[in-house]
Amino acid sequence: MVAKLNQIESGKAKRGSTIVFTKQEIDEHIRQELRAKQVKGLSAPVLALGTARASGTAQVDFSLLKQQTTGKPPGMLSRLLLSGDRELEVDIRVSSAPQYCRVDILNVSVDGFDVSGRALDWMIANYLKPRYPQVKLNEWFALQKGIERIDVSPFDVRVKMLA
Q: CA 55, CA 39: separation in Å to the nearest integer?
């Protein structure tokens, strides 16, 4: 998977080609990244793919994750409500148009309780954005130069390069 990603990112992917990432490749890449980056507070990730959708579950200790990401301990409220392993579930929809993509959050739950509105905004700002500051959610964004579209199916993710 790393070789395929490097091919896309370096601009060496053949024009008009479709690069396929199987679910198995994605699962293995996630496991390798967690090991390589020694991510504390995140374990047992499981990914499911659907037509233009993806969902994932993981065990998350938000206190450990925040401390590793920012180097600062979480506040008292975060420690009280979100420390210890929590079952995180996330469902997203992936839409693609020529040279653009959009990732919409459909549902987030922690220990079976839905998280939405300001609580979800707070979680994104405090846990996702510090680790991935360029992430775009619920808005269209331009794909990397040379990519025409990204399609998600129950079996794989396909990156179609511009012809």
A: 20
* Domains identified in the chain, total number: 1
Task: Give the per-residue pLDDT at 81.
Answer: 72
Q: Which burial class, exposed, middle or buried, applies to 79 when counting CB atoms under 10 A from its CB (0-12, 13-18, 19+)?
A: middle
Q: Write the pLDDT tens digit of every residue in 16-46.
A: 999 999 999 999 999 898 888 877 888 999 9
Closest CA to 84 of 92, 74, 93: 74
Domain that holds residue 32: 2-154+156-160
Roughly how many angstroms between the first and final C-alpha of the chain, as a whole number? Answer: 22
Q: What's this model's pTM, rounded to 2 decimal places? A: 0.86
Examine the pLDDT at 113 and tell me if it is beyond 80: yes
Token pair, residue 52, equals 């233009």
What are the two backbone dihedrals, phi and then psi, of residue 147, each rounded to the nearest 5 degrees?
-95, 130
